[in-house]
Amino acid sequence: MTTTESRLTGADVNDVDSIVIERSDPNEILHTIQQESEVLFTWDYKRSRPALVKLYEKAKRSQWNATTDLPWETEVDREKLAVEFRQTVARFDVMQDDPDAPTAKWGDKEWDEFVIETQRWTLSQFLHGEQGALICTGLITATVPWIDAKYYAATQVMDEARHVEVFGRYLEEKMDGAYPVNPQLKLLLDDIIKDSRWDITYLGMQIMVEGLALAAFGFMHMLTEEPLLKKLLRYVMSDEARHVAFGVISLQELYSQLSAAEIKERQEFAYEAAVRLRNRFFAQDVWERMGVDPKAVVRFLQTHPDPMEEMFQTMLFSKIVPNVKKLGLLDAGDGSLRKRFTDLGIIQFENNTDTEQEYDSLDAVAADAARIGPGAAAG
Ligand SMILES: [Fe+2]
Ligand SMILES: [Fe+2]
Fold it and tell me: 232 CA to middle of ligand 2, Å?
């Protein structure tokens, strides 16, 4: 398809049946997506985009090896990890002592288990999102018209393979394996990959999904003291910051040339992706596993908002909004995206530093090498 089918209207943003949705076959191993993008050779090999050349050189210098650069021998204490994790995922304080909550019968044991499962679920969605990024970036090497972008995307393919590798290994060796992909994340990845416009792959993946991931990794990295997870996240974030910058640099050039109608379509896409990530990315699988009806949880939370949980969800947009603004999407046309982001409660991040400005400072791999010398990443 050439345009994204709109599944959302203003009215159904908070509809319970669009938040908790049917999962596809839980035994599915392969998932097929029909893709009909134009694949572009370019015979123009001239290096004409200095910002991308610089990013590509950095990516080549800051590669790391997941096998040898992370302390896999670390014994992970899951109980301790869960205690830390309580600070990043609110324990739904509003549900704790309310006799009307669907969790009314839960005691400390159930809440502790819920926290551990939520952490495993979160890392599992990181894993699946990373595979989405791997696929998107492989696609971009073929569909983007510029040689500098093909070069850069090729380094990102390697980065994403490494990210799938590290989250997969962490879940397998240090936790009880991965949860399946969340149905909402799967729908979003499907829509991004299906779309035949090359810039939508970037907008969906580099700006929205990776922008959210960068913020989420940052929180988890800040709060965890588990040395393996901490270093893993620090190195993954180094790469992710470049990936988001890749989106900003590329789309800034393209979007300055698009018509008003074309920009409007991109604004719609950004909004729909934001709604999916803000209001719908709900851990229904964890509630189901814990024996609680996820729709009952959504209904309860809609009438008993949990301020901690809402703040956390909102903070995940701290990297997305300034980048969307830098692309000119926030205020283009009638400024409706600004209004919609205001309604979603995420507009306050618009003046944060954009990722093109900060990717250099997030390069932990280069920082370690400068501190200890080349090969330091192995330490
Ligand atoms: Fe990644
Ligand atoms: Fe990435």
Answer: 14
What is the span of the domain harbouring residue 237? 57-370
- Domains held by the chain: number: 1
Q: What does the pLDDT look like over 247-275, one tens digit per residue?
A: 999 999 999 999 999 999 999 999 999 99
User: 60 CA distance to ligand 2 centroid (A)?
Assistant: 15
Q: Does a structural domain hold residue 13?
A: no
- For residue range 194-203, list pLDDT tens digits in order: 999 999 999 9
Whole-angstrom Cα distance, residue 298 to residue 115?
Answer: 18
Determine the distance separating the centroid of ligand 2 and the alpha carbon of 173, expressed in angstroms. Answer: 23
Model-wide pTM > 0.90: yes
Q: Which residues neighbour 143 within 8 Å (Cβ) at sequence distance 6 or greater? A: 37, 38, 39, 40, 198, 201
Is residue 212 within 8 Å of 316, Cβ to Cβ? Answer: yes
Distance 166 CA to ligand 2 centre (A): 13
Task: Give the number of whichever ligand sits closest to the CA of residue 240.
Answer: 2
